[in-house]
Amino acid sequence: MKALVALILLVQLPIHKAVPAGPPAPLHCDDPESEAAAEAALLYINSHSHHGYKFALNRIENIHVLPQGLNNDIIFLELDLLETTCHILSPTPIENCTVRSFTQHAVEGDCDVKLQKLDGKLSVLASKCHSHADSSEDVIRLCPDCPLLASLNNTEVLTAVVAALNDHNSKTADAYLKLLEIGRARIQYHPVHVVSVEFAVAATNCSAAEAKDNPEACQLLPDDQSNFGFCTATMVTKPSQDLKVDCQLYGHQPGVTYSTPGQDTSAGLVPSVVQGFTNHNLRLSHNNPVASESSSSEFPTALLSAKSVAKRAVAEVAQHDKVPRPVGFVPPPPPCPGKIHHFKI
């Protein structure tokens, strides 16, 4: 009898069917996971850039995740970057590099990056970047007297760089330095005429004294002994003449090399600079060797998908805003873009 009652009760119990788990919630641009992916992307970008300066993260514009399987995701990022004062050859970690202020005529970088997160480990599969200086009009509007970026092949710029390097080599008792590239230059016309330049240098196998007789015979040190550095200089030409130069060598950095394909080493100019550009373009398009051709070809399509997802999210928030809300109600922010870390250009 007891067994029959137990059976009846069991039959009457409600049956709860297992509900399949839905897709994971989309990442927001300011989520810790998004910031970690951006950090990995930034490290990759700076380590694969060969000219100009390191870039810092300004904002995550968009993020899109494509699950590939258990603990395996493909992540697409759109990043806004800003140029720092650290040259690409500098050993200073990016977190310690100063972002150039708006009044210093800032340079912005835009990057699309594809990463894989496998078993919790992030790796970059591909990246596409470019950079551009802020418009002169924007700088003048905020700071009418601020000097603007000058073309890196400007005659006054080249004159200032040559004079500064000669001045340093004539006064130092250390290695004779040769020019690698001009990093940036600005010219101020009023109230005094000032040319400010920054340029990368490298030590040679000659001392400054040995180079006086035949500087052309001095060669850059081999990779296993290389010693790169950086110089800043200001040359005042009117109303009086003055030259101030500061050069610092970084010391040998194992594994750090400088690429000089097609470069005019006499002037320290890469081909794009000869055309009159004011900054080194972060023209980075790189596929990691571990990425397959099929994966690389998916890059643009997935980015378009990510952008459509972001547009839908913004539209949904806008639609919710049309619904009457209680006083004091604050609608949730859209998932992207993320917060601005420095300033918006």
Describe this structure in words.
It is a single chain. This protein has a five-stranded antiparallel sheet. It has a five-stranded antiparallel sheet with strand order 5-6-7-8-9. A hairpin with a 2-residue loop joins strand 1 (53-69) and strand 2 (72-87). 26% of the residues lie in helices and 33% in strands. It is flat and about 75 Å long. With 345 residues, the protein is α+β, with helices and mostly antiparallel strands. The longest helix has 23 residues, at 299-321.
Overall radius of gyration: 28 Å
Question: How can the largest sheet be summarized?
Answer: 5 strands, antiparallel
Ranges with pLDDT <50 over ≥5 residues? 261-274, 292-297, 313-318
- Kindly estimate the percentage of residues that lie in beta strands according to DSSP: 25-35%
Helix run count: 8
What structural class do helix, strand and pairing data support?
A: alpha+beta
Number of strands: 10
What's the overall geometry? flat
What is the distance, rounded to the nearest whole angstrom, between the alpha carbons of the first and last residues? 82 Å
- Residues in helices, as a percent range: 25-40%
The helix-strand sequence is HHEEEEHEHEEHEEHEHH
Strand order within the widest sheet? 1-2-3-4-10
